[in-house]
Design brief:
Strand order of the largest sheet: 8-17-16-15-14-13-12-9-10-11
CATH architecture of the largest domain: 3-Layer(aba) Sandwich
CATH superfamily of the largest domain: Ribokinase
Structural class: alpha/beta
Helix content: 40-55%
Number of domains: 2
Strand content: 5-15%
CATH topology of the largest domain: UDP-N-acetylmuramoyl-L-alanine:D-glutamate ligase
Length: 503
């Protein structure tokens, strides 16, 4: 799956209503959903296998009854356990249950250990409260059984909007969802609970999205391929931008070099490391294609960035925490170039995100990107409890972007990119190997290299996050941050070959 819209449970409910209003019955949608679930079970287990379908009291349970009926017709040995009673079911779920010819077991008699596979149709993505009581006990028994689980829509107990577990949650082997993924399929811990996610077509037309107008996407090339193109045949290095990477003191020079190499690999025509005098010789001896210029403190950086040919600046990797860094950030944000703030540049403003907002406000449309990991996010926005306490990582990033006027890259295994205008993307190709020292410095440089070429902040951040993860996957086991810039040429070649072959 590439980039596509992510729908909150409320937006998906609107999609269902619009589809039904256009002439497709709710029962028809339920039949198609149940058939899609049955098909997945049939692909993973041979005819005759024992299947336990656990159904809840809503439409998710109705999908489960349809799947049970179809699987029984195909020769599977199917049992259905129901939370509540069949008499209490209403609407389409009641109609689906009425067509199930077999017995319906109470929760305490639905033993997953007697099944070869369990179909989880208890609760869908719209679960609005914690799972307790009989339902919690059933979920715990399913998880403890060790049996493979096919989840309908989303594993029961996972909030479809936030990805958070509501009390207890099913750990699925595979998940089948419909029309579009939900944020909870990609946000942690939901992503870890889902297993591989299959997106089933149940006959909903994409035209409904014009009315729903979602503002969240799964990150991938189709989201930003119009922005990231191969260099022009008749172009030159000055047309591809000039990125400046601010270096810290002697003991932290490696971080700046990682960012500089990444910016150059990202396609910036020129890259300069702005180095304090004490580190100048170290940088000059270690860098070949990257230029080195002496730049001490805020005044030095301001003098360097006064040359408007410098189109992007990256500040933060091992830059140092304190007033000197704050002054350097102010110099960069008043210089008129696109800016990436990472690591120490963020920590230097702990509890003072409003100060960054004030500086960004004078940028006159120039892109500013902040790249906090969870700890830096908490420190930077700690004085805004409405932001840090928001239930969803997407919501937190959106609120932070709105406050600062900057694009926010909220890093982690489920990195979220959010723009001040409300657009957001959730990344899904991250790999565990990237959890290593210096990987964030490479990402900051990547973003800076793309900004230098003229990409807007949201596109540059989304593209960099995706390319960074692809490079991590390409290196794999044993990855260290130094490997990432060297992996980028093959990743970029594959991207350009797939999306811009004429280039």
């Amino acid at each position: 799956m590439d980039a596509t819209e992510l729908l909150t449970p409320a937006e998906m409910a609107m999609v269902d209503r619009l589809t039904i209003a256009a002439g497709t019955t709710g029962l028809a949608l339920m039949d198609r959903a149940g058939a899609a679930v049955a098909d997945v079970v049939a692909r993973t287990r041979p005819t005759g296998a024992a299947v336990l379908v656990v159904a809840g009291p809503g439409n998710n349970g109705g999908d489960g009854f349809v799947a049970a009926r179809i699987l029984a017709q195909r020769g599977y040995r199917v049992r259905v356990g129901l939370l509540g009673t069949a008499a209490a079911l209403t609407g389409d779920a009641a109609a689906a249950a009425a067509r199930w010819p077999g017995l319906v077991l109470p929760p305490d008699e639905a033993d997953p250990r007697d099944a070869d596979v369990v179909v989880d149709a208890l609760f869908g993505a719209g679960l609005a409260r914690d799972i307790t009581g009989d339902a919690a006990a059933l979920v715990s028994r399913i998880n403890a059984s060790g049996r493979p689980v096919i989840a309908v829509d989303i594993p029961s107990g996972i909030d479809g909007e936030t990805g958070q577990a509501r009390g207890v949650a099913i750990r699925a082997s595979e998940t089948v969802t419909f029309f579009r993924l939900k944020p909870g399929h990609l946000l942690q811990p939901g992503r870890s609970h889902c297993g591989p996610v299959r997106l089933a077509d149940i006959g909903i037309g994409a035209g409904v999205l014009d009315t729903v107008a979602p503002r969240t996407w799964r990150n991938g090339p189709t989201l930003w391929k119009a922005d990231l193109r191969p260099p022009a045949t008749l172009g030159h290095k000055y047309g591809r931008g000039h990125a400046v990477i601010a270096s810290g003191r002697l003991e932290g020079t490696g971080a700046a070099r990682l960012a500089a190499r990444a910016a150059l690999r990202a396609g910036a025509g020129l890259v300069t490391v702005a180095s304090p005098g004490e580190a100048l010789a170290v940088h000059a001896g270690a860098l070949d294609a990257v230029m080195v210029r002496r730049s001490d403190g805020a005044a030095g950086l301001a003098g360097l960035l006064a040359d408007r040919r410098h189109s992007a600046a990256v500040l933060g990797p091992a830059l140092g925490v304190g007033s000197v860094t704050r002054d350097m950030v102010a110099s960069a944000l008043t210089a008129g170039c696109a800016t990436v703030l990472d690591a120490d540049a963020l920590t230097s403003f702990a509890g003072a995100a409003d100060r960054i907002a004030g500086l960004v406000a004078g940028q006159e449309g120039r892109a500013v990107v902040l790249t906090p990991h969870d700890g830096e996010f908490q420190r930077l926005f700690g004085a805004q409890p409405g932001i840090v306490a928001a239930a969803s990582k997407v919501t937190r990033a959106r609120l932070a972007a709105r406050l600062t006027g900057a694009v926010i890259v909220s890093k982690g295994p489920d990195t979220v990119v959010a723009a001040p205008d409300g657009r957001a993307a959730v990344n899904a190709n991250g790999v565990a190997w990237l959890a290593t020292a210096g990987a964030g410095d490479v990402l900051a440089g990547l973003i800076g290299g793309l900004l230098a070429q003229g990409l807007d902040g949201f596109a540059a951040a989304c593209a960099a996050v995706w390319l960074h993860a692809e490079a991590g996957a390409a290196v794999g086991a044993g990855l260290i941050a130094d490997d990432l810039p060297g992996a980028l040429p093959a990743v970029l070649a594959a991207y350009f070959g797939a999306y811009h072959p004429a280039g």
